[in-house]
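Hi P.,

Sorry for the delay on this. The queue was packed all week, but I finally got your sequence through. Input first:
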Amino acid sequence: MHVLPYLVAAYIFLTGCYGLATSRNLIHAVGCLAVCQSSTYVLLLAVGYRDGATAPVFSDIQPGSRPVVDPVVQALTLTDIVVGATVTALLLALVLQIAKRHGTVDPDELRELRG
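Then the structure:
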């Protein structure tokens, strides 16, 4: 049962990568990239999970009496969520500018950007 979160994270990542590779729309590609990013949330939470542990913020817990969850992993997950939302917003803004300037969001029709 301990391997299940890792398999879920791998499945989410591979699903996002497949959508990213087969995408013919820039907005769809940004969404698939966000799905790939969400797999890291599951992975980080799976790494930080401890069976039978409690949150470390309760003051009634005596040190060493019960196992506690590592709060650093939870903070990294929250930071990952914020960074993912920021990257998604920036990429959607870039897609909006591409749509305004070129009139399409299909990557194959953007001939001017090819070098």
